[in-house]
Amino acid sequence: MTRNWLILADDLTGAADCGIAFARRGLEASVGWHGAEAASATEVLAIDADSRRLSPEGAGARHAALLRARHAPGMGLIKKIDSTLRGQPAAELAATLGALRESGRPALAILAPAFPATGRTTEGGRVHMNGAPLETTPLWARDHTYESALLTEVLASVGLSARLIPLELVRGGEIPLAHALRSALDEGLDAVVCDAAAPGDLEALARASLPLSESVLWVGSGGIAAALAAALPESGAVAAPAPTALRGGVLIVVGSIAEASRAAAAHLAAEDAAELIEVPVDLLRAGPADPRWAPLANRIAGSLASGRDTLVPVTDASVADLSGGAALAVALAELLAPAGARMGGLFATGGETACALLSHLGVHGIRLLEEVEPGVPLGITQGAIEVPVMTKAGAFGNEETILRSLERLHHLTQDLTGESAR
């Protein structure tokens, strides 16, 4: 079975979610991103295409270009999509399949976006979130691309043919499931949509499909990546750079408006576990000319320099406010640049936010170390600075997630250095 994998993702947190699954199995895994110097060569490379806010045509073209540049024969391939279908997953998949077939390789997409550990399941070919159809959730109301979350219809919208593999077939045994996958490949279908409501469903799918790795690609989120990694032979532990004592406080940036991230930030502030310094969204729109800019940037940097973990949420944000999310992420990165030089570590919610800040600081990749909890990987930055970094998708986790993640980081550095915790 292959030890070398390429993961193409539409954002940074998703790339890290998938890559960390392989790091847990002893494979060297790193994350890089579009537009930056290539991350260090490792057995598993996850690349953030930074395509979620692009047009369907732009997102597809970027994925096809990355595939042509980084994929080689014998490599396993995962196309990471958002588990709630944000962005342009169908257009990206169509372009990725097209690029694979240019080389004469048969390619069947195994579409399994479920991530049961974070409440995402696929039932009857439709995405559900915490048991409810995705279309009924606040997240869908705030941000969606397609008319429905019925995956066969989503694929049909870009001209891809697909068949549903229902839950009873997924759970019906490895031999019938493998036969269904081979039949779809032989018929020339573009994709199969796979139901999954529990981690064991994804594990069964991984075992049945891995023998077809030369002819398929897997499309999904951290759930299918974890299942594929678990189905591989376990490797010995790989020596990896480890966090040293934190030289400054941890910078906690909450750039997401998702309810889970806002609740976690509020809980952290209520526990007085970090200095709270809010960044109004109108300040980011105004830019450095605003008289509030420099004092706020200096205040955040000073808090970190004093060794205090510092929570920086973007406030007064609404769907309309964040419609220009890429520009706001860049502005936030510029505001936090002085803080970045003083931070001992980074926790960031929202891939666009994390990528903009790290790129601004001269970081071109992350070497992955461990998973603090589902959807929260820990790694070490690669580039101009080397500090621990944790990323989290905006809608993952609960109100304790950030607090638990910070505790894990401090305990880890304490264990490695023998120094007392703060």
Automatic annotation (TrEMBL):
* InterPro entries, A to Z: 4-carb_acid_sugar_kinase_N (IPR010737), 4-carb_acid_sugar_kinase_N_sf (IPR037051), NBD_C (IPR031475), NBD_C_sf (IPR042213)
Keywords recorded for this protein, A-Z: ATP-binding, Carbohydrate metabolism, Kinase, Nucleotide-binding, Transferase
Signal peptide positions are none
Task: Report the SUPFAM superfamilies cross-referenced here.
Answer: YgbK-like
Q: Does the keyword Disulfide bond apply?
A: no
Q: Identify the domain of life.
A: Bacteria
Record-annotated Four-carbon acid sugar kinase nucleotide binding domain positions: 251-402
Q: Four-carbon acid sugar kinase N-terminal domain: from which residue to which, for each copy?
A: 6-228
Keyword Isomerase appears in the UniProt entry: no
Q: Which GO MF term does the entry hold, naming one?
A: ATP binding
Which family does the record assign? Belongs to the four-carbon acid sugar kinase family.
This protein is called what? Uncharacterized protein YgbK (DUF1537 family)
Q: Which organism is it from?
A: Muricoccus pecuniae
